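Recall the central idea of this unit: under ordinary conditions, the amino acid sequence of a chain determines the structure it adopts. In this exercise we apply that idea directly, starting from the sequence alone.
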Amino acid sequence: MDLSSLAKGIIVLGLVLVLAGALLWLLTKTNLPLGRLPGDLRFQGDSISCYVPLATLIVLSILLSVVLNLVIRLVNH
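Accordingly, the structure predicted from this sequence is:
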């Protein structure tokens, strides 16, 4: 593997992480109930707690699938 292609891949990965972080930061500013939806499970005991955001993950998965399908269709035309 060529080092220049590895460097380009790392740069692209970094840009994707920055964009994902910015999107998450913007989502926290919108007061959407992500993480507090019905279907998000929270178990609490005396010394341990477990949180499983099932409904939030399903909603985000559907949204990402729609956005990625739109982007792929726009790029292919």
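The chain has a mean pLDDT of 90.
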